[in-house]
Amino acid sequence: MAKQQAVARDTFEKVMLPIYAPADFVPVRGKGSRVWDQQGREYVDFAGGIAVTALGHCHPALVAALHEQGEKLWHVSNVFTNEPALRLAQKLIDATFAERVFFANSGAEANEAAFKLARYYASSKISPFKSKIIAFHHAFHGRTLFTVSVGGQPKYSDGFGPKPADIVHVPFNDLDAVRAVIDDHTCAVVLEPVQGEGGVMPATQSFLQGVRELCDRHQALLVFDEVQSGMGRTGKLFTYMHYGVTPDILTTAKALGGGFPISAMLTTHEIASAMQVGTHGTTYGGNPLACAVAEAALDVINTPEVMAGIEERHGLFVETLEKINTQYNIFTQVRGMGLLLGAELSPAYHGKARDILHAAASEGLMLLNAGPDILRFAPSLVIEFADIHEGMARLEKAIAKVVGSH
Ligand SMILES: *Cc1c(COP(=O)(O)O)cnc(C)c1O
Asked: Binding residues for N(2)-acetyl-L-ornithine, per the UniProt record (predicted)?
């Protein structure tokens, strides 16, 4: 390990809360889908900051928006509105089912707002006893106490004291399981159209359609968490558009600011009207700097060229992963939509995802996992084809190493 890396590792352990296990190298600079560390070593980025840097690093349109707004106005709080927030909200409305927008700073905050809105809408407009939330095993919705409680992974919610009550978890893609627990006391069904952290698992068409019908029958709101799957990630601006199933509330974050922290909750006028001045709020949410960058990101992402390019890149990723697999027989399945892809390791390699990530890093490739058995790919939506080829060559070397030492 180079000296600077050892120093960074030492410092990390001295100054940071011990909740992360970062890679040994420290990135200092990025351009497009290439990143450089303190030693000047170069990496191909298939991780995209966990589906965040959807236009790669330092995209000129985002840099320009940040500079321009940075010279104008950074922050005024929500005691005042601001021009970039109004423009961004209008563009999100024009591009989706939505009629009202709430801005926050992270995925968890957008979801927290969504769950509060669903409860508030039900209790104020329908019945004070309508508080049940139906959610799914392996779901991930963020790290606030409410969002880890709605999330379907007890390892993230246990040990923090009493949890918000009246939350029920059932298996994903199992319509009968939803049918068995939904009733007139249900205020919302919450799901990711493609489960991300839970293993890159797309919903089936019949499941989403069926859940929509059950929600309508029981006056429950359908909430789509598109924090990871939104903003072009799966090849349409939002994943619900692939299915033709429209939610009542949609949250998005990660790629929305292309690396600048911002999130949004979208909903209808009717549902939004349950809330009044003071019912919910945030200091930073919708600040001009974040909204200016997100507006630039939306302008670039929501174009036919970028959308068509995602499908082409999807094809190249899947084809190359399958080619690697014919040689090494290391995956049981390559799945996902657009540029949110998962490669599930075959049983002989279960638990090895992190080993492959480490091997990839030493070959100059940044990669993600989704649990111990799945490699996850969430690159820039405009990654150069040459970068895909180079990254895949490095991945193959990493896999050869792990297979060889197995
Ligand atoms: C990342 C993620 C979140 C949490 O977002 P943060 O910005 O980390 O709070 C919520 N839901 C999904 C589906 C995510 O992928």
From this structure: 143, 282
